[in-house]
Amino acid sequence: MCRETKREPAWVSAIRLAFLRGQVDVDGVMEEANLIPGREGTVRDVLSTMADRNLLEPVDSSEDTYVPGPVLVESDRYDLDFTKASDGGAHRWRSSG
Q1: Reported pTM
Q2: Tell me: the pLDDT tens digits for 20-59?
Q3: Quick one: CA dihedral 22, 25, 30, 31, positive or negative?
Q4: Residues 43, 32: Cα–Cα separation, whole Å
Q5: Which of 15, 63, 65, 85 could form a disulfide linkage to 89, CB 3.0–4.6 angstroms apart?
Q6: The domain containing residue 62 runs over which residues?
Q7: Is residue 34 situated within a structural domain?
Q8: Residues in contact with 78: Cβ distance below 8 Å, sequence separation at least 6, in sequence order
Q9: Residue 36's domain is classified under what CATH number?
């Protein structure tokens, strides 16, 4: 995170939203990362690249909305404590078994 502007990379915010909300969109990443208006195109590019790498999957051919992809869902980070995560988070609505 950039101390001076309290901003973080879009991909970090996207992963956080994917795990905690179970869905990622451009507006959510913009807000979570505290990005200035006008960066929506950059966020779209980041989310698209994450989808190309199977970190995210597009929802219904939407250009702006994604859900966690197999790389995030099947990651080996099963020991994380999700007890305080939202009920709609990826760990609750999608399982690998």
Answers
A1: 0.71
A2: 888 999 999 999 999 999 999 999 999 999 999 999 999 8
A3: negative
A4: 12
A5: 85
A6: 10-71
A7: yes
A8: none
A9: 1.10.10.10
Residue 18 has pLDDT above 50, yes or no: yes
At residue 83, the pLDDT reads 63
Give the Cβ contact number of residue 67 at 10 Å.
18
Number of domains present in the structure of the chain: 1
Which of these, 30, 33, 27, 25, lies nearest to 50 by C-alpha position? 25
Displacement of CA 46 from its chain's centroid (Å): 10
Instruction: Determine, yes or no, domain membership for 92.
Output: no
Q: Kindly state the helix (H) or strand (E) to which residue 68 belongs, with its residue range.
A: strand 65-68
Q: Is residue 38 in a domain?
A: yes
18: helix, strand or coil: helix
**Alpha-carbon distance values, 63 to 5, 45, 78, 94 (Å):** 28, 10, 29, 22
User: What does the block give as tokens for 75?
Assistant: 């990651």
Quickly state the pLDDT bin for 67 (edges 50, 70, 90): very high
DSSP character string of 48-86: HHHHHTTSEEESTT-SSEEEE-HHHHT-S-TTS--TTS-
